[in-house]
Amino acid sequence: MLLALESSCDETSASVVHEGRVLANVVSSQIKLHAEYGGVVPELATREHLRNLLPVTRAALQAANVLPPQLDAIAATIGPGLPQALMIGARAAQAMAFALRKPFFGIHHHEAHLYSPWITGQPPVADFANFQPNVSLIVSGGHTMLVFVESELKHHVLGSTVDDAAGECFDKTAKLMGLPYPGGPELDALAEQGDASAFDFPRPMIRDLHDDFSFSGLKTSVRYFLRDQPFILDDPDRVRDLCASVRGSIVDVLVTKTVRAAKRLGVKCVTASGGVTCNRGLRKQLTAACANAGLKLRLAEKSLCTDNAAMVGILAERKLLYGHPATSLDEEVKPNWPLAR
User: Fold this and answer.
1) Are 77 and 111 in contact (CB under 8 A)?
2) Is the peptide bond before 80 cis (omega within 30 degrees of 0)?
3) Which stretches in the chain have pLDDT values below 70?
4) SS3 category, 139
């Protein structure tokens, strides 16, 4: 039995896992709090983690019908993320591990995302019996990367964003259009009713054979487009077309580079996780592209795409199972911790 905590950004989460089964996964979101400011305010996020961590942890233990002494280990995200936010979950987990004399596992947030597509069903269970080498797309507000996962707990990064991440581009272009926070989901919803071929925006690095991403140029292109044609925002139909066209550009890049990397490496499986994996356009296009290429696709469940402690707990349990050494109780948080290449 293992308790995991996640507090890397603006979700406070606690989860209890046992033998690959998620017994409880409680998430407290701060979206409404930060909406007033149009983005996550680190100081406010940290205060909310302080306020929510204890009740969220209690709720998870209660839902799992587990008492603290029954736990075999404690885990928490220690990076990357907002420094003070990370510290809330990490220090609480280290204190619990010390008090209960249990091992502590400090988990890399992105590495945890690599395993969220393998958590499926109700109740959620990790399907590692069917695990196979895969190219994994992690795409969120702060990060976009392709990772080759050769086997369980063995991976290396193929490429990542060199400037703006895909989720950041979604959110910032949505803000340029005056859409409410969080902009990415709003843009996605409007795009469902629009024509993706209405406007031609760049697809950065789509023809480059490397696996890195760049979306700052697309964001700038939208900015200049709206500067020169501001009247488009007065027409709801054209706004929907604009959303669909922007989404189409971002999704084309993500899907093309992911499938191309999978073919190059000769893997038969692709996975995708992270908050932007909730995007309907991405899910549909990646599903179609993988089917056409004869690739198996595993998409993280939408409830596990955004930050959550279930994926942290599942990864920590695998590390415990395979005999990885526990993390020191003196380990500091790592806000800029890169995923090993």
Assistant:
1) no
2) yes
3) 341
4) strand
